[in-house]
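Dear Dr. L.,

I hope this message finds you well. Following up on our conversation about the binding site, I have prepared a predicted three-dimensional model of the protein together with EPZ. For your records, I am including the exact sequence and ligand specification that went into the calculation, followed by the structure tokens. Please feel free to forward this to your student if that is useful.
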Amino acid sequence: MEVIQVLGGRPVTGEVLVEGAKNSALKLMAATIAAPGVTTLKNVPDISDVHVMGKVLKRLGAKIEVVNKHELRIDTTDVDKWETPYELVAQMRASTAVLGPLISRFGKAVVAMPGGCNIGERKIDMHILGLEALGVEFKVDHGNIHASTPNGLHGETVTLAFASVGATENLIMASVRARGVTVIDNAAREPEIVDLANMLNEMGADIRGAGTPVVEIHGVGELHPVTHTVVGDRIEAGTFIATGALCGAPITVRGFDPLHLGLVLRKYAQMGISIERGEREVTVWRDRPLVPTDIQTLPFPGFPTDMQAQTMTLLSLAKGSCIITENVFENRFMLASELRRMGADITIEGHHAIVHGVDGLSGAQVKSPDLRGGAALVMAGLVADGYTTIGDIHHIRRGYEDFVEKLQALGADVRYNTVEVEEAPLGWDL
Ligand code: EPZ
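The resulting structure of the complex is given below.
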């Protein structure tokens, strides 16, 4: 099994440039379906989730030219299928982002019902409810969602029960060419949604208010392909900022907009972390003990759930106790049991994690519970006593390009390795 091995205690300092945002790039790639022709995407992260989305688009009939590892030329002229296979949706639930663009272009779509994942059930009931309001009819059978628009798509006012990122994005992408005006109330406000709306508007759409709780989409005729640069990844940036905060020595993180991490930077300052903001970068260091600080995750501009795990690692070494409340996903505390193996003192009570700071962590064998938890474990290894071996690192590869290499460039003693895994015995092979 491939693992990441870290030897704690080395100074970690220097500069790191983050890639384009995973949670924007995936939707921008899907949105190219709605604009037949060749769209060029720049600053695309070279991560496995992007590779899977590429497979989905190719399965639909698109052609993809990898100009260089961060630039894709996607030709959707000949997209003539509207069915995404289960095996790809099961690999990555973000494949459901093709639902809106397929409906916009073909008036129909077949998407496998996404399975859950280990951070939660990941339902798409809000996507379906919203799209039904626009005139989409759904049938679910054999695990597939069949969408059709017998009477075309018409604008409607849709109020989301929760500011769902995916539902907001699918509704925007489905309604760009609907007859009339669509209003999404209680829309998600994430910067990745603003990036998607910007590209769609460059393509000829008429989307107003992206980034606010009320988004208005005025239906237009055709969309045309464009060249668009993906917004910087605020969560990859936040992960390296958390790393600098944890290890103490200064790290400058470039390639993103610090305004996209507003509350994280404010909370980190409360935790005794020094932050210097620039236009497109942040320098972080720490020369005093971490102050325990309560955290509640919420949709943007609230504290991002995708920074919860990295912050739990920080708070596990604070001088005192605090509470982390996870309001977005129902099961996103699996990191706690792995950190406990390293000596952390964390108790889970439903949506709350009670974190009692300890003086230090000790290296151990642990497993990535999910994408951000995996990164948080590598971080913990950087300051733990001795060696930490992290397994299931495919989770990390989904969302971090060259994570190990970037940490090595900052001076960390971290490397890939492979370990023999004792296969679970089948029967008594004593
Ligand atoms: C996006 O997921 C991101 N993924 C997630 O990042 C991120 O954590 C999340 O937004 C919140 O910011 C991508 O963009 C690919 P939601 P998404 O719809 O769209 C429930 C990472 O680490 N819900 O805002 O799925 C849902 O189960 C990943 O990069 C419904 O119940 O998030 C969840 O509990 C992890 N019904 C909550 O809402 C629905 O119809 C938020 O989901 C839709 C969502």
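In brief: The first strand starts at residue 2 and ends at 7.

With kind regards,
A. P.
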